[in-house]
Write a structure and sequence with these properties.
4-stranded antiparallel β-sheet
């Protein structure tokens, strides 16, 4: 049934490309109906009669594979050739040649043999009505091989319809139907150094750019204002799917984030766009930056962050305990070549831990060259978190349940 379904789908796809879906469906269903009827007629009428005329016990014709064994033994001289009928691709060619040998043995011409290959149930019925079996001429047998090859090719085309049907079904199940890129998506791909021709993108890249557009549309529909893409974290990386962007009407271009989760059949979005527009944003920056600045000179480091969640009842005094955030500190490696990073992480982490954070606060420290530190900013800092850019990286996180956790 799966093969029949895929065959229908394959033919339907061909006609769909021509804009004739209904015709494709009708042709597919008709073909399968004829195929089913043909198999029944072959099994319960033609094959028994054929074996009977060859002096064989007709009851064997009702036994799967044994009937094919007897036919191959009679027309090919070796019964085990029946195994070839079940070999992919080869089986179709072998079937066509066998039909031709049967037809020519009954003294039929090439035209009849060809029709017999296409509609075996009907034309074999005509053959079994003959009273005698006649040997065919060698010339006709050779023609049968050639014509059999032609029919084999036709049957291979049928296989391709099945294969294309399977591919199309798989693509639809994985949401990979034909997809057209928007101008915004092309612009994002250009910035990321990727081709804007969808045929040159991998399935993973298509999935990512599609998700980016969907999550941007979520923000825009919710807040009624445009958003500009900054960065995207794919769930395939093992992390939570997250999009970073900023409002087009925000002069400070504060980065906000939106996450997407699947809870059963429901898609759940969470964002901090409202949070980023409140005083909590600037309050958090001042608190964190005031501590970090104790260790580094002005202009020798840069601090960026993303507030992922903030409790509704937050206060300035208990702000650190009320937020879930990710923080990135970029340090001039040329100015601090021998900096004791482990001591800094323990002291910084202990300070955060004293605030009794109820949510996870993650901190990543990057040592970069002076020139890179000058160019990194709120919008592009995600481009500097790759090992090809930074000289060293250190990470830790703090929350109420685990305390301080430093990643070696």
């Amino acid at each position: 049934m799966l093969i029949i379904n895929n065959f229908i789908n394959g033919i339907w796809n061909v006609f769909e490309k021509l804009g004739t879906d209904y015709v494709g469906m009708c042709v597919s269903v008709l073909y399968v109906a004829v195929l089913v009827v043909s198999v029944l007629v072959l099994h319960f009428w033609c094959v028994p009669q054929l074996l009977s005329k060859m002096g064989k016990n007709s009851k064997r014709s009702y036994i799967p594979f044994l009937n094919a064994w007897e036919i191959c033994k009679e027309f090919w001289g070796k019964g085990w050739y029946a195994i070839l009928l079940f070999v992919p691709i080869v089986g179709f060619f072998f079937y066509a040649k066998t039909i031709y040998k049967i037809a020519y043995t009954f003294g039929k011409n090439s035209a009849f043999a060809f029709k017999c290959s296409i509609l075996p149930a009907y034309y074999l019925t005509i053959l079994v009505k003959k009273d005698e079996i006649e040997d065919a001429e060698a010339e006709n047998i050779k023609k049968g091989y050639v014509a059999g090859g032609v029919v084999g090719i036709i049957n291979v085309c049928c296989i391709l319809c099945v294969v294309f049907g399977m591919i199309d079904i798989n693509n639809k199940e994985n949401g990979m139907e034909e997809y057209k890129l928007t101008d915004r998506q092309k612009a994002i791909l250009t910035v990321e150094g990727l081709p804007t021709d969808i045929d040159k993108l991998s399935d993973g890249q298509i999935s990512a750019i599609s998700s980016i557009e969907t999550m941007l549309e979520y923000l825009e529909n919710k807040y009624g204002v445009g958003f500009v893409y900054v960065d995207y974290v794919s769930p395939l990386s093992g992390e939570e799917e997250e999009l970073m962007a900023f409002r087009v009407d925000d002069p400070e271009k504060k980065v906000v984030s939106v996450t997407r989760k699947y809870e059963g059949d429901e898609i759940v979005y969470e964002d901090n766009a409202e949070i980023a527009s409140k005083d909590v944003d600037e309050c958090y920056r001042k608190m964190m930056d005031s501590y970090i600045s104790k260790y580094f000179e002005n202009g020798k480091y840069k601090f960026f962050y993303t507030l992922k969640d903030v409790d509704d009842n937050w206060t300035e005094k208990e702000l650190i305990s009320s937020v879930r955030s990710s923080n990135e500190v970029f340090i001039d490696v040329d100015s601090y070549p021998d900096f004791d990073t482990m001591k800094f992480m323990k002291e910084f982490g202990s300070w955060i831990e004293k605030q009794k954070p109820k949510h996870v606060i993650g901190v990543s420290i990057f040592f970069v060259k002076s020139d890179d530190l000058k160019t990194v900013n709120e919008q592009n800092y995600s481009d500097y978190i790759f090992d090809s850019v930074y000289k060293a990286r250190h990470d830790f996180r703090v929350n109420n349940s685990e305390g301080l956790v430093i990643f070696e």
